[in-house]
């Protein structure tokens, strides 16, 4: 019953809105002449059926299946060391004992199924959705508006922008028209199309509530379109379209204390989407440009200083206050300093951080931008050459796979743990070239830590290799043990000099 109420509420509100508008028009009709239809603002029609008809066939249902798996987990029994051995483990015992009660066991994870939405962007089967919709999937099943089903594969995904590109083998599919989200205006009518709460092929209406909304999520690029069109679980990856049925954003999240829609939905604009998808197709990874600063909205900085009792006059109440300039970054190279206020990029006004993020998200390393800023209230300009995450302008390749190491690995056995008095490790049981051989890592070596992270499974090593490949210093610092018991340390560069 609760679900029915939650679902029905937006519909009731929509009816109330229509009735209120009709009543308002009737009240004023006696005093003012009827408006001429031609004078109504462009793109603000009362009838939204055309947009729904255009968009619905292009929005798909995505089922993400994660199969049951066997995983090794660590658990703690604080009483074990004292009750399983009257001497508290002082004389040594088997693996998992005498270690503060830390033990390992294998567990079977349940099969998991989740669902979301996606948008067909090309007739040959490319579909855009959210990264969190497809993340961790063993199987992806896509159902079209006409109920045809296809298996899908992931072409590429980017957690930073929460976008993913998947592909189905189809022809003459109903691709959506893509509009330029930069042209969208606050107050413009929009439709959210998706599959919320298990209700397939659902359309909700609202307006653009705000643009370039920054959600302040660490490690995320957020310059979102905010809408009051009802968005709920299952809408993720669906389409936000204008009154012509053209795509202006990919629905990504809601802001709610209840988990249900309360009028705050957010979509990733197509200006960012187009660049991310193009990068994935061309390079296999997003080419992320960095301006090289940390900062905040001027208004937020001024308010923060006022709370401390400080009066601040930066010469403007709009723009981005630079709190820190990153060493060797683009801004540092161009001479920007802490305390400067960025007001424009390439002549485009950037009143808040979300505007800055949105513009830079469309750039690539090596691109040049002209920054207008204030220093001590004096206007200045500088040309910046944007850099990538590694501090240069080279093309960043997709995450490298564990295969680059040229080794085969297996978790150590219980007998090895007992014999060598260690709790975990990953043994290199075969080397056939690759980065391990180049660094001199021998066959039989047991890896315990890489870049200060414990390595217990092949999945652990794969994750660390992927993280390191994207870092400014793509090197693996390996700690472990030789079969003889001697400790060993190796530095394994992931890139050629």
What does this structure look like?
This protein has 497 residues and is α+β, with helices and mostly antiparallel strands. Helix content is 21%, strand content 32%. It has a 6-stranded antiparallel beta barrel.
In whole angstroms, the N-to-C terminal distance is 63 Å
Can you summarize the main beta sheet? 6 strands, antiparallel, barrel
Q: In terms of structural class, how would the helical and strand content be classed?
A: alpha+beta
Rg, rounded, reads 28 Å
Give the DSSP E fraction (strand runs of 2 or more residues). Answer: 25-35%
Helix segment tally? 11
Strand order of the largest sheet: 1-4-5-8-7-6
Overall 3D shape: globular
Mean pLDDT metric: 84
Poorly predicted runs? 1-40, 81-98
Number of strands: 26
Structure, briefly:
By secondary structure, the protein is an alpha+beta fold.
Index terms:
26 strands; 11 helices; disordered N terminus; 497 residues; 6-stranded antiparallel barrel; alpha+beta
List the helices and strands and how they pair.
Elements: H1 2-29, H2 49-55, E1 59-66, E2 70-76, H3 80-83, E3 102-108, E4 112-120, E5 126-129, H4 131-134, E6 139-143, E7 149-158, E8 163-168, E9 189-194, E10 202-213, E11 224-227, E12 239-241, E13 247-254, E14 265-269, H5 270-283, E15 293-297, H6 298-307, E16 320-325, H7 330-333, E17 341-345, E18 348-349, H8 353-360, E19 368-375, E20 378-385, E21 407-411, H9 414-420, E22 426-431, H10 434-439, E23 446-450, E24 453-454, H11 458-470, E25 475-481, E26 487-493
Antiparallel strand pairs: 1-4, 1-6, 2-3, 4-5, 5-8, 6-7, 7-8, 9-10, 9-12, 10-11, 11-14, 12-13, 13-14, 15-16, 16-17, 17-18, 17-19, 19-20, 21-22, 22-23, 23-24, 23-25, 25-26
């Amino acid at each position: 019953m609760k679900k029915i109420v939650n679902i029905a509420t937006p519909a009731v509100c929509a009816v109330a809105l229509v009735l209120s508008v009709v009543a308002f028009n009737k009240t004023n009709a006696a005093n003012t002449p009827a408006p001429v239809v031609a004078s109504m603002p462009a793109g603000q029609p009362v009838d939204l059926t055309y947009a729904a008809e255009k968009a619905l066939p292009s929005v798909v249902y995505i089922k993400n299946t994660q199969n049951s798996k066997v995983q090794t987990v660590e658990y703690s029994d604080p009483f074990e060391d004292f009750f399983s051995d009257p001497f508290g483990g002082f004389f040594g015992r088997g693996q998992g004992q005498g270690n503060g009660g830390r033990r390992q066991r294998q567990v079977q994870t349940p099969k998991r199924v989740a669902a979301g939405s996606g948008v067909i962007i090309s007739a040959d089967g490319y579909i855009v959705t959210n990264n969190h919709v497809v993340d961790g999937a063993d199987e992806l099943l896509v159902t079209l508006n006409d109920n045809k089903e296809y298996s899908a594969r992931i072409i590429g995904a980017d957690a930073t922008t929460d976008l993913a590109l998947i592909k189905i083998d189809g022809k003459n599919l109903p691709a959506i028209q893509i509009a330029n989200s930069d042209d969208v205006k606050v107050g413009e009518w929009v439709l959210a199309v998706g599959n919320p709460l298990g209700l397939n092929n659902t359309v909700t209406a609202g307006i653009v509530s705000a643009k370039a909304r920054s959600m302040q999520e660490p490690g995320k690029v957020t310059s979102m379109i905010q809408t009051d069109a009802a968005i709920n679980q299952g809408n993720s990856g669906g389409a936000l379209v204008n009154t012509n049925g053209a795509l202006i954003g990919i629905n990504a999240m809601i802001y709610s204390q209840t988990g249900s829609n309360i009028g705050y939905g957010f979509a990733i604009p197509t200006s960012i989407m187009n660049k991310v998808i193009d990068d994935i197709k061309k390079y296999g990874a997003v080419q992320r440009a960095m301006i090289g600063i940390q900062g905040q909205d001027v208004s937020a900085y001024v308010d923060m200083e006022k709370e401390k009792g400080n009066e601040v006059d930066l010469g403007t109440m709009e723009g981005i206050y630079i709190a820190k300039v990153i060493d060797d970054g683009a801004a540092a190279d161009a001479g920007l300093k802490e305390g400067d206020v960025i007001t424009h990029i390439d002549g485009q006004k950037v009143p808040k951080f979300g505007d800055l993020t949105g513009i830079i998200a469309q750039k690539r390393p090596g691109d040049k931008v002209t920054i207008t800023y204030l220093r001590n209230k004096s206007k200045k300009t500088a040309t910046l050459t944007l850099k990538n995450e590694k501090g240069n302008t080279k093309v960043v390749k997709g995450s490298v796979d564990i295969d680059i190491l040229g080794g085969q690995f297996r978790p150590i056995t219980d007998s090895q743990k007992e014999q060598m008095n260690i709790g975990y490790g990953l043994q290199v049981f075969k080397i056939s070239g690759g980065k391990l051989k180049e660094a001199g890592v021998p066959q039989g070596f047991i890896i315990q830590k890489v870049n200060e992270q414990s390595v217990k499974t092949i999945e652990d090593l794969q994750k660390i290799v992927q993280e390191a490949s994207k870092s400014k210093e793509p090197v693996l610092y390996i700690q472990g043990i030789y079969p003889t018991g001697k400790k060993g340390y190796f530095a394994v560069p992931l890139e050629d000099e």
